[in-house]
Amino acid sequence: MASPSAKELDEVCPSNTDVDVDVVTALARCLVSFIAHPNPQVRLAAIEGAVPYSLTHPNIFKIHDLQPVRNLKVLLRDHPKIGGHALTILVNLSGEDDVLDSLTTDDKFLDLVLSKIVVPTEPNANLLSMLLANMSKRDNLKDIIKKRQTPPEELKSDDLVINQLLDLFVKGFDGTYNKHANYDYLAYFFADLTKHEEVRKHFITRQSYDGTFPIAKLNVFTEHKSEIRRRGVASTIKNVTFEVSSHPDFLSESDINVLPYILLPIMGGEEYDEDDMLDMLPDLQLLPPDKQREPNPDIIQTHVETLTLLASTRDAREYMREVKVYPLIRETHARVDHEGVREACERLVQLLMGEEAKDGEEGQAEDEDEDNQLVEV
Predict the structure, then answer these.
(1) Which pLDDT tens digit goes with each residue over 84-121?
(2) What is the pLDDT of residues 201-231, one digit of tens each?
(3) CA 53 to the chain's CA centroid
(4) Rounded Cα gap, residues 12 and 33, in angstroms
(5) Where's the Protein HGH1 C-terminal domain (predicted)?
């Protein structure tokens, strides 16, 4: 794209500097005043020097009713180096509520971000992923579920933006789609979006263009080398399992089939009773003794909480008993020294090892189950 015009970059240059302002702040203000300079070399030098101040002096980017922030948004269309520095500053500033509001309520800016991130040659795609992850903390970003744009031919997706981002996350993890990016931070983006019911329902609706449940595309990343991916995917799966009506699809081997992908990360190389082992899911049998358990206990806790959500119906509990989930949770409880993990394991064990109601008492038991179910906060 062409560089922004001088009119688009409304230069912010303070007419004077307060005499009591320290030298560092004065220098930072001076640099920020030149990020909109018509000369691209001046813009590049100024914005490169301004990056550290977005962490130490965020308020200097808020002068004149956030005019520097508006300039930074325009600079995304500038030379990739300038655009990259602008994105870095916006990522740093998006922890500020007023800046985040400015970003998430600007629909044209969001469209620009979404159109750029899917381009297979975009050098700043990872920064765009980080920015989207931060922007998704605002509830209004759930409307992205309605957005459409023409996908690049290389992506082989459909025109729904959310599907394009999912396909981007799947196809771009190893740099084969875009050598500049791995899109890991989209995992956090999905995790925040799936706090909203309409987004969750999309993730459990089989898509006509590829015949796949969107949430099923994320399963394989529960054991990915990137902790960012593992953490974000674990949270996304947990959020989507709040849709209890779809639990049969989650457990079905021909549909979402999430169970082995949740259980594998929490397993180490422990030995199990032979009868128990033979009843486990095929993917969990005969694991090597050097099999490594997920190293982050918070992610293990998330997986166990997901299992607890899935165990909220009687059919699911009976299935988990059949495939010997209890021995796996028992070993996790014994081997992971983390209070949150142990408490989550104990809650799940209470569900799996508790006595089920007899046929005549089933209605009463279901009412009790509803009282004890986890409620999304």
Answers:
(1) 999 999 999 999 999 999 999 999 999 999 999 999 99
(2) 999 999 999 999 999 999 999 999 999 999 9
(3) 27
(4) 5
(5) 306-359
CA dist list (Å): 140 to 55, 104, 136, 162, 187: 26, 7, 8, 15, 18
Prediction pTM value? 0.89
Query: What is d(CA 144, CA 126) in angstroms, rounded to the nearest whole number?
Result: 19
Q: What is the pLDDT of residue 83?
A: 98
The DSSP result for 97-137, as a single string, is: HHHHHHHHT-HHHHHHHHHHHT-TT-TTHHHHHHHHHHHTT
d(CA 61, CA 370): 50
> 215: Cβ–Cβ under 8 A, 6 or more apart, which residues?
203, 204, 236, 237, 240, 256, 258
C-alpha closest to that of 190 among 133, 134, 111, 126: 133
Structure tokens at 7: 């009119």
| CA-to-CA separations, 296 to 263, 306, 338, in angstroms, rounded | 14, 16, 10
Domain boundaries, the chain: 1-96, 105-223, 241-356+364-377
The radius of gyration of the chain from alpha carbons, rounded to an integer in Å, stands at 25
Distance of CA 137 to the CA centre of its chain: 10
Instruction: State the pLDDT at residue 6.
Output: 45
Query: From residue 137, how far is each of 79, 161, 169, 170 by CA, in Å?
Result: 28, 18, 19, 22
Residue partners of 217: CB distance under 8 A and separation at least 6 = 166, 167, 169, 170
User: Picking from 4-8, 55-59, 160-164, which range would have the lowest pLDDT averaged per residue?
Assistant: 4-8
> Could you tell me the pLDDT band of residue 366, with boundaries at 50, 70 and 90?
very low
